[in-house]
Amino acid sequence: MGRIVVDIMPKPEILDPQGKAILGALPRIGIDSFTSVRQGKRFELATEGEVTQKDLDAAKEAATELLSNPIIENVVRVEAVEE
Amino acid sequence: MGRIVVDIMPKPEILDPQGKAILGALPRIGIDSFTSVRQGKRFELATEGEVTQKDLDAAKEAATELLSNPIIENVVRVEAVEE
């Protein structure tokens, strides 16, 4: 079995209320090390056998066509990962 | 400025309806390469200067205390990343 990780983040210019809410909550648990927090999505796509170039191409297509909204999000990573 | 990435995934034994819905939608865009899809969260925490060990420790604490629900989610990565 192989695995491909796809990471999606909001475009930098897009408002990230969830990230702001987290940044605002961190001091309540005594953490003030961070200047900003942004939240995105992480997908793991499993393949039958080892990851092939065809699988990677399919993951890239899925990332732009289905897993992300190209208007407000960037696909920041599509990568085969070790089991 | 430094950046720390925190990746959170649902525990393997936890039902992932979102992942199942995506797996079911992939054939509609002609993709059948994948046996499963799981969806988690990806956070980017920005620091004022270069990332220090103290920042990494704070990110780990934030990951378990605030960014994840330890009952249903695993923190799979807390790592400083290049700008």
UniProtKB/TrEMBL annotation, chains A, B:
- What quaternary structure, including any partners, is listed in this protein's UniProt entry? Part of the FGAM synthase complex composed of 1 PurL, 1 PurQ and 2 PurS subunits.
Please provide the record's keywords in A-Z order: ATP-binding, Cytoplasm, Ligase, Nucleotide-binding, Purine biosynthesis
Could you tell me which species this protein originates from?
Winkia neuii BV029A5
Q: What's the name of the protein?
A: Phosphoribosylformylglycinamidine synthase subunit PurS
Please report which protein family the annotation says this sequence is part of: Belongs to the PurS family.
* HAMAP family per the UniProt record, alphabetical: PurS
Enzyme Commission designation: 6.3.5.3
Q: Which Gene3D superfamilies match?
A: Phosphoribosylformylglycinamidine synthase subunit PurS
Report which reactions are catalysed by this protein.
N(2)-formyl-N(1)-(5-phospho-beta-D-ribosyl)glycinamide + L-glutamine + ATP + H2O = 2-formamido-N(1)-(5-O-phospho-beta-D-ribosyl)acetamidine + L-glutamate + ADP + phosphate + H(+)
Per its record, what are the GO molecular function terms?
ATP binding; phosphoribosylformylglycinamidine synthase activity
Pathway membership of this protein? Answer: Purine metabolism; IMP biosynthesis via de novo pathway; 5-amino-1-(5-phospho-D-ribosyl)imidazole from N(2)-formyl-N(1)-(5-phospho-D-ribosyl)glycinamide: step 1/2
- Primary role: Part of the phosphoribosylformylglycinamidine synthase complex involved in the purines biosynthetic pathway. Catalyzes the ATP-dependent conversion of formylglycinamide ribonucleotide (FGAR) and glutamine to yield formylglycinamidine ribonucleotide (FGAM) and glutamate. The FGAM synthase complex is composed of three subunits. PurQ produces an ammonia molecule by converting glutamine to glutamate. PurL transfers the ammonia molecule to FGAR to form FGAM in an ATP-dependent manner.
